[in-house]
Amino acid sequence: MRRPPSCGEKGLKKGPWTPEEDHKLMNYIQNHGLGSWRALPELAGLNRCGKSCRLRWINYLRPDIKRGKFSQQEEQTILQLHSILGNKWSAIAKHLPGRTDNEIKNFWNTHLRKKLIQMGIDPMTHRPRTDFFAALPQLIALANLRQLIEQQPWDGHTTRPQTEVVQAANLQYMQSLFQSAASIAPSPTIISSLNSLTTDLEQICLLSPQHMLSPTLLDRIGGVDLAGQVPHNQMTNTLFDQPVGNINLSSDNNVNSSERSHVEGENSSQKSVLLPENSLSLLTDMSASNPCNIISASKCDGSSTPLPSWSEIILDEEIMREIA
DNA sequence: AAACTCCTCAACCGCGACGCT
DNA sequence: CAGCGTCGCGGTTGAGGAGTT
Description:
The chain has helices spanning about 20-30, 40-45, 50-60, 70-85, 90-95, 100-120, 130-150, 160-180, 190-205, 215-225, 280-285, 290-295, 310-315, 315-324; strands at about 245, 275. With about 325 residues, the chain is an all-alpha fold. Mean pLDDT is about 60; it is low at about 1-5, about 150-170 and about 170-315. The chain is built from 14 helices and 2 strands. It has a two-stranded antiparallel sheet with strand order 1-2. The radius of gyration is 26 Å and the shape is elongated. The protein binds a DNA duplex (21 and 21 nucleotides) through helix 3 and helix 6.
């Protein structure tokens, strides 16, 4: 089947819309309503293809479009729905009135996806990332840091104040890396890297006691056998291991009832959502805090028992129907 | 102030789904 | 049922604004 020519092939205008074009499109739709997108451009006096007009209307000109930053509640809803629906942006957009699929998709790609990756969570599966290649950038950074440390003069002369600042920053960064790396199933290479870094960290701490590692991390370094065995009693509660409670999406106490999720919907008694307590708040609070606080909450033993993804613990009739 | 890099988001493209004949 | 036209979706791109050096 021969496809209709794309916009460019007929000498139709492409690219950003001018206010005049917007006005024409708005006027036409207000006067005639939505009909055939194919026929609209000619009828409205626009030198655009119908597809372009449709997109412009849906993503920008529609009167019910909500502009501005996504609220924390919207962010939670997106994370929640994405864990169930995947990249079904239009389906997700149906639960966020005033938001377009394009807007949600952009927001996901520019903010949420990165946030999850930073946290060591696979943005597609919403599970902790356990693959080696996912850890590669961190391992490279670890290796570079190690090299950096080995090259430090530590001679106590004029460079000292600067050195301390750099070391403090390094320490902070290494704490993050450590916690990230510890959440990944260790390979012999990783174990070796971590072992040598542990030694390096100990040396730094001895030389620069004011930059002690946090008790949490020290406990972690001490408690985690780098060969992959985690003493059972030291296993931290994980985001995914917490008892599943019957809570609504607004686990954040600051969110008032009128802002509650659209997923919860009109019939909240029927559509309550099961989630690990506070998990979404943790996720959406990430921007202001150290990502590794969350990363450290993942299992450290590369356990063979797969951790449940949110989708496995979320029960929402409407969404399940949508999936079906 | 200029050059450069990074980030955001509007818009495009290709494809599958759907509906009509 | 097949063929065709249109619509809607998801992935991707690139212009331009913001931030940094």
